[in-house]
Design a protein that fits this description.
Blueprint: E1 4-6, E2 13-17, E3 26-30, H1 47-60, E4 86-89, E5 97-100, H2 103-122, H3 148-155
Antiparallel strand pairs: 1-2, 2-3, 4-5
């Protein structure tokens, strides 16, 4: 069975990997509505979310219905408010470039982003405006992932 992604499920989306790490079938959901502080938040699976994933799994894959869950984990990743990369020069140290909003995307797109940043540093190329953090200061903006207007005020401190 190949890896799969179900974007037709109502928010959140679900995805899976067969025989993941020799432990069995992995199923996960992708929900980008909760802000997470890695210094203060617990990394313990929330029972209600585990229940929701089990219900989806048993409905989508009836052959797995009733089989026990062998493991649950929290898979946190960082992301920008609009789901896109942030590439900016540091406010205080102009020779430092900060990249953010990537997690798994950064891994997949690393070579391309690396080439772009190399050109910014070595060839004085301008950072494309769609990567600039200033795009998040527009409180009317929203994205497929977040309502930026609501979240921006709560996270403004992260950019200063």
């Amino acid at each position: 069975m190949p890896c799969w992604l179900d974007l037709n499920a109502n928010n959140p989306s679900y995805y899976g990997i067969p025989f993941h790490l020799n432990k069995g079938f992995k199923i996960a959901y992708d929900e980008r509505t909760t802000l997470f502080d890695p210094d203060k938040s617990d990394r313990i699976p929330i029972p209600e979310l585990v229940k929701r994933v089990k219900e989806y799994c048993y409905k989508r894959f009836p052959g797995l219905s009733g089989l026990p869950i062998s493991e649950t984990r929290v898979c946190q990743y960082e992301n920008s408010l609009d789901g896109n990369f942030i590439i900016n020069k540091h406010n205080s140290f102009k020779k430092i470039i900060v990249l953010s909003g990537s997690s798994g995307h950064g891994f997949k797109m690393g070579p391309g982003i690396g080439e772009l940043v190399t050109n910014i540093i070595l060839n004085n190329k301008k950072i494309p405006s769609f990567f600039d953090k200033s795009r998040l200061e527009n409180e009317k903006q929203s994205s497929q992932y977040y309502n930026t207007k609501i979240k921006y005020q709560k996270t403004k401190r992260l950019f200063n």
